[in-house]
Amino acid sequence: MTVTISGRLSISSVRSFLADTKTLFDTASPSALTVDVTDLKSIDSAGALAMLELEERARKASLPVSYTGMSHEVRSVMDLIDRKALAHPPIHPEKTVSSFFEGVGEGCVDLYRDFVAVMTFLGDLIITLGRSFAHPRSVRWSEVTFYMKKAGIEALPIVGLISVLIGLIIAFMSSLQLKQFGANMYVAALVGISIVKELGPMMTAIIVAGRSGSAFAAEIGTMMVNEEVDALVTMGFNPIQFLAVPKVMAAMVVVPLLTLYAMMFGILGGLVVGVTGLDLTLYTYLNQTFENIHLRDLITSLVKSGVFAALIAGIGCQRGFQVSGGAEAVGEATTSAVVSAIFLIVAADSAFAVVLHYL
Amino acid sequence: MEYNNREPVIVVENLLAAYDENVILRDVSFRVARGELLAIVGGSGCGKSTLLKYMIGLYRARRGRVVINGVDIMSADEDILNQQRLGIGVLFQSNALIGSMTLAENISLPLKEHTDLEPEFISRIVRMKLGMVHLAGYENHQPSELSGGMKKRAGFARAMAMDPTILFFDEPSAGLDPVTAAELYELIQSMNRDMRTTIIIVTHDLNLVFAVADRVIMLDAEKQGIIAEGSPLALREWEDDHRVYDFFNRRKTRHP
Ligand SMILES: Nc1ncnc2c1ncn2[C@@H]1O[C@H](COP(=O)(O)OP(=O)(O)OP(=O)(O)O)[C@@H](O)[C@H]1O
Ligand SMILES: [Mg+2]
After folding, report:
1. What's the rounded Cα separation, in Å, for the pair B204 and B28?
2. Which residues of A touch B113 (CB under 8 A)?
3. B169, B159, B243: which is closest to B199 by C-alpha?
4. pLDDT-based confidence at B169, cuts 50/70/90?
5. Is the ipTM beyond the 0.85 threshold?
6. Domain for residue A108, yes or no?
7. Residues ≥6 apart with Cβ < 8 Å to A273
8. CA-nearest residue, atom 6 of ligand 1
9. Residue of B nearest to A222 (CA)
């Protein structure tokens, strides 16, 4: 049997060619196959692969194949295909979908490794921070101010806005209930206490994690990918000292200040509702607020937000240093920096709640 | 020149280079004499850059030793390692310029950290180094504002910043036009001959190898190690292994 291929066999026409070959082998059962390519004008690599496919099928049906009229060009294109490469198995085995239990097991192992990595890094960070305080000249202060501006001043609008809204919402929602008992007065205390003790530090920390924790991870991650961190090491710098310490220091200064600012705006939000909607005077509202906020609460909140800051900046840097490979790893690192930071914030907040209860 | 009897600056012994379980090189041993210019060549992906990173102590080997100036950098602690690093300059394959800093800041980084020179003198050094790689006037450019070849030269200038006694270059001539490349060869040669710097070059640029190298080590991915070692001319005449012969005579490997 003779098959004639003519014209141009290219990536746009191989589909019908492959379909034709399939029907050929399904319908006819020839004893030998001759492929006439005298009129085959041109061929591209997809076309050549399709011809190989034809050969392959014939070989499976144990048919001898021969070509007639193969031009020099077609032969050269066919020779470009490395037949061994087509059959070469991937060097990295394909990731197989593991069973549920395997998945859980692997997850646990990964979690444990991650925990060890984070703890090791935090240990290194604390040692390096301590050394920095002992030798203030080794700190890159210009970087510290740079990150204070980035993480602090530039966050002012969003932190202010969100805090006002939260103050408004708490005051409004609680007033709906308290009004029924004529207890409007207590709205001020409720807003003040909840903002100062919990929401101020927590919301600020979450905003900073989203804005700056992710940025730290992305920055250091990109430097890892570009071998910049390797270059720093070979120039005799300690990457933690050089890259992480300024960020952590800046965050630890700026986040408590931001928290203070968030508290003021939160109380302001409550005040707007109190004065406009609940017939409280400005004086009564503020008086009620300040009577119920204790200095001790304020100070513990600021300490707490300093700890949050260290966690956010620390985990951001750690996720950055963990990057290996390419740009996609940087994306993963930023996501992971924010998620882990929020988890750590909540965990630390719970720890503070328990400890402060017994103090 | 004959280097065999001179004292070795770098000794690599039975080194195993691997990424996790993925072994790249095994049982690699060689020495580099003081003042020697050694080229490490081999096909793409055979582990040249990996070997270089082991030699500068970025990775710790599970097996084998790397000794620089008599210090085993695989077991040395961080302080001793940093001491050694002051005498080492490295040009990475990706240049590794710090993206957030200008060229001047990049080059002056090690000078400011490790010397007590006056800032004015440091900026003179920066100018001098930029001039050596024909980048005069580019002090205040960010790396992102430069072309690929310019970045390569800036990385080169930074590697030389501290006037190190050992220089490592990973593909120094990649992405350079023929004229700039020829100038770079001269610069490398002058650093080696006149300043007596020990230089290790990773490259697949045969022009560079023939122009400057005293000795060549050829790595191979299949063998996961050294398949030939000798002068450039000796490797061009290498008859024992067709891979070596083909590489140095720019031929396609014949599949037997
Ligand atoms: N970070 C890494 N993680 C895992 N494997 C890596 C990593 N870097 C390189 N490899 C692997 O190590 C091998 C050697 O890579 P290396 O970069 O040393 O090659 P090379 O000889 O420098 O090649 P080229 O001439 O293309 O620069 C490659 O097979 C590569 O897949
Ligand atoms: Mg390389």
Report:
1. 19
2. 235-237
3. B169
4. very high
5. yes
6. no
7. A167, A168, A171, A172, A175, A187
8. B19
9. B99
The answer to whether the beta carbons of residues B7 and B34 sit under 8 Å apart is yes
Q: Between the ranges A66-70, A95-99, A238-242, where is the mean pLDDT highest?
A: A238-242
Tens of pLDDT, residues B108-153? 999 998 888 899 999 999 999 999 888 888 989 999 999 888 999 9
pLDDT at A305: 95
Sign of CA dihedral B118, B121, B126, B127: positive
Note the pTM of the prediction, 2 decimals.
0.83
Chain A residue set in contact with B, beta carbons under 8 Å: 219, 222-223, 226-228, 230-238
Taking CA atoms only, the protein residue closest to ligand 1 atom 9 is B50
Q: Using the beta-carbon criterion (under 8 Å), do B110 and A236 form an inter-chain contact?
A: yes
| Ligand 1 pocket test, candidate residues B23, B44, B46, most atoms within 8 A of CB | B46
Q: Report the C-alpha gap between B74 and B63 in whole angstroms.
A: 9
Instruction: Tell me, yes or no, whether A137 and A248 share the same domain.
Output: yes
Question: Which chain A residues have a beta carbon less than 8 Å from that of B97?
Answer: 228, 231
Q: What whole-number distance in Å separates Cα of residue B168 and Cα of residue B71?
A: 18
What secondary structure letter does DSSP report for A283?
H
Question: How many helices (H) and strands (E) in chain A?
Answer: 16, 5
Interface contact flag, A235 B109, Cβ < 8 Å:
yes
Domain span including residue A264: 131-358
Please give, rounded to a whole number of angstroms, the shortest distance from the CA of A218 to a CA of chain B: 13
pLDDT of amino acid B254: 55
- Assess whether pLDDT exceeds 50 at residue B256: no
**Are both A75 and A141 inside the same structural domain?**
no
Right CATH number for B36-53+87-248 from 3.40.50.150, 3.30.565.10, 3.40.50.300, 3.40.1390.10? Answer: 3.40.50.300
pLDDT per residue as tens digits for the range A215-242: 999 999 999 999 999 999 999 999 999 9
CB B80 within 8 A of CB B74: no
Domain count, chain A: 2
The pLDDT tens digits of the residues spanning B70-101 come to 899 888 888 888 888 889 999 999 989 999 99
